[in-house]
Each structure stands twice: as structure tokens, then as C-alpha cells.
Amino acid sequence: MSALFNIIVPVFLIVGFGYLVAWRGIFREGAVDGLMVFAQNFAAPTLLFASMSRLDLGTEFRPALLLPFYIGAFSSFFIGWAGTRVLFRRPPMDCVAIGFTCLFSNSLLLGIPIMERAYGPDSLSGNWAIIAIHSPLLYTFGITFMEFTRAHGSGLSVGGVALRAMTGVLRTPLVIGILTGMTMNVLQQAGLVMPEGFWAAVDMIAGAALPAALFGLGGILYRYRPEGDTGAIAMCCACSLLIHPGIAYGLGRITGLDDAGLRSAVMTAAMAPGVNAYLFANLYGAAKRVAATTVLVGTAVSVLSIWMWLAILP
Prior knowledge:
The protein has helices at residues 2-23, 29-54, 57-60, 63-86, 92-103, 111-119, 125-151, 158-170, 173-189, 196-222, 230-254, 259-269, 275-284, 288-312. 80% of the residues lie in helices and 0% in strands. By secondary structure, the protein is mainly alpha-helical. The chain is globular, with a radius of gyration of 19 Å. The protein contains 14 helices and no strands.
């Protein structure tokens, strides 16, 4: 019970506070949008830049950590995609959008603060290693899958689809933050030393990322009214909160992943779908209601599912 109140509730209280002030009209839509632009396009990429710059690239990028998480993620996608196609008989683009909702966990805005509160700041190396390829890999996969689905029968070449997907991924602020951070990491290994004032400024902006994003997330969630598509939403929540972390946990145990790596893989996988799942659906105009409502419902239900996973983990 202490884990629920001391680790999980504080994070969701910030989200709830943002939801409350948006609901009461104290924090209006324009203010919410402005805060999220700052958090997602500037503060969060800066946080990723700082974390990637300091990550030990040689020790943290290990298959034993990454494979359980990403096998679980892609399994979740294909279960969601196939379930949408077979059970709910939705159009092909809806199948991809719903599959992406099952695939893309909120690894940064929820995963990092909950992991830090549960296991301390020294436990985050595995999380950062997962996050380093999370957005680039999953966005590339999702956009490519959607573009091929959309281009089916249009005569667009494979190269044209791949170029469109890669261009979309490289323009994403989070991906830019990751890539520039890894570039800085390599340059520092080669002997580059940046002034202390530079890192002080980076850390000040990075420090604002999570509280601002969590507060803004509450304001964003207020817009997502639960409505319709109950079966598809339940399937997405099950994939995100149970199947993905369940596969990560099982594979981690089978392969002998150490406790620290197992915690990072499972806790990152156990996060609800983030706002990016809705943004992806909105970008293509496919299954927007399912994605939006899943973000809201999944975030609320994850208070209990995260508590369960914390109790299971060593």
C-alpha cells in the first residue's frame, strides 16, 4: 500500500491537478497548448539531450535489457492490429493507429518519475537506454507501416514511402534531442569539454520538463471524453498495461536479466499510452476517438496496474 501512496500517487496528483484546473476553466486550452509545446518541443528534448550526453553507451545498450521490452512492444502492436482487423473489422488505417496506441508507452513523462520515486535516481540508466531508441524506432515503424498501408494500390514506390517515413521521424523534437545528445556523448568521449555554465543552463531547462509535462498532460486529458468503442479501448488498455509488461517480465526472467534491468524494462513497458498515441492517430485521421479515450482511461487505470507490477518486481 505504501508504494501506491508514496510512489504512484504523487505523480498522478500532478496530472490530476492539471486536469482539475483545466476542468474549472482556470487554465484555459490556449495555456495548456502553450505549456505542452514548451514541455514536449523544448524541455523534454533538452532532458533527453542531457541524459543521452551522460549515458554510458558501452554498458547500457545490451540486448538482455532491450529485447524483452521491444519484443513485448511489437507483440502488443500486432495483437492490437490483428484484434482490430479481425474482431472489430475496422478500416486498415484504423488498425495501424490502434496498433500504435498499443505499442507506444508513456516511457518518459510517466515512466521516469515513477521509476525514480520507486528505485531512486541511480536506477534510471536502463530506462534511458530504452528511451534512447524508443521514439526513433517506434515512430519509424509506425509511420512506415501506416504509409505502406495508405499507399497500398497507389503505385507509390517503396523508396518514396521510406523517405516520407524517415523525414517525419527526423523532424520529431524528441528524436532530435536523443540524436544530439548521443552526438554530444561521442564528442565528449573524444575529448570535448563544454563549459560548466552550458550544463547549468541545460539542467535548468531539463528540470522543468517532467513537472510541466505532467501538469500539461492533465489539461490535455480533460479534452478526451470517454465515449464509444469500448471493446477496442479495453483491448488497447490490456495490451499496454498487461501484455507488454507481462512479456517483458517473462522474457527478462527466462534470460536471467538482472534485477535493475528487469525493473527498467517492466516499469517502462507498464506505462499507459502517451499523448503521442493520439497525435499519431490525429496525424492520419484514423481511430482518433479510440486513441484519445485510451490515453485517458489507460492513464487512470494504470494507477492500479503500476502498483501491481511494483509488487511483483524484485
